[in-house]
Amino acid sequence: MFKQLFDKYFSLLFVVFSITFIVSTIFKPYPLSWLMKLVPMAILILYVSQHISNKKHNLFFIGLAFSACGDFFLDYDRTHWFIYGLGAFFVAHVFYLSAIWPIEKKRLGYSLLYLVYGIAMFSLIAGGLGELFIPVLLYMLVLLFMGLSTLLSTKSNSWLIMGGILFIFSDSLIGIDKFYAPIEHVSVLIMTTYYAAQFSLVKGLIACNVKAASDAQLVSAE
Fold first, then answer.
1. What count of Cα atoms within 13 Å lies in the side-chain half-sphere of residue 70?
2. Most buried residue, 13, 158, 204, 217, by CB count within 10 Å?
3. How far is Cα 111 from Cα 139, in angstroms, rounded to an integer?
């Protein structure tokens, strides 16, 4: 009963709590803002946990958990704990990659586009990275590869592709704001695209597994 109700109102709950936190960023800092930030991620984690049916779902579930850890680190102390947040999201993307593997589609043009974008973005912020030069470079590489994999994966669908693009855009805004030039109220746009990215990745993974199950039933019926 709970699962049916939760599935029915999952999107609404996620949107309401996401908007609540996004609006609240205008008034930060305030006590326990990190907890408010984690509520939408908790909703996604609960949703995926109720749809775990194979190893891929488990891998993605772990990725979401590491993303939630990254959210906590970055909101609790963005200055001193930034490196921990970066590390948590690095691990999250590794698990996201594992969940959408394998890659078979050959789209060289898109691959070059992602590469050019990555080089341009890193060149823009490189001067302000200091001792974070290597960690940020490694993170950008895994982020770009995750985004590209949503396009090249055999599981690729519009939800996954959108999730990858939005994640790259959201993290690009963080990089520009922190390492190049501060942007007023940028947190609103960062969190809007970030929550949309996580939501899209979840919907995309569930959709591709539903399709796989449907295809398997058709084959068995034949």
1. 21
2. 204
3. 18
DSSP state of 77: -
Domains of the chain, residue spans:
2-207
Beta carbons within 8 Å of 193's beta carbon, 6+ residues apart: 166, 167, 169, 170, 173
Quote the pLDDT of residue 218: 46
Alpha helices in 78-157 (DSSP H): 82-100, 108-125, 133-152
CA distance 42 to 195: 12
Mean pLDDT by 10-residue block, N- to C-terminus, for the chain (222 residues)?
A: 78 96 91 95 94 84 97 92 97 96 77 92 96 96 95 91 96 96 93 98 86 50 51
Other beta carbons less than 10 A from residue 208's beta carbon = 20
Count the Cβ atoms, other than its own, within 10 Å of residue 161.
20
Q: How many residues does the chain have?
A: 222
End-to-end CA distance of the chain: 34
Task: Give dist(CA 53, CA 49) in Å, integer.
Answer: 9
Bridge partners for 153 per DSSP: 103
Q: Decide if 163 contacts 180 (C-beta within 8 A).
A: no
CA distance linking residue 130 with residue 178, whole number of Å: 12
Question: What is the structure's pLDDT at 213?
Answer: 52
- For every residue of 81-101, DSSP letters joined together read SHHHHHHHHHHHHHHHHHHH-
> What pLDDT is stored for residue 111 in this prediction?
84
Q: Please give the Cα distance from 44 to 186 (Å, whole number).
A: 24
Please say whether the beta carbons of 137 and 122 come within 8 A.
Answer: yes
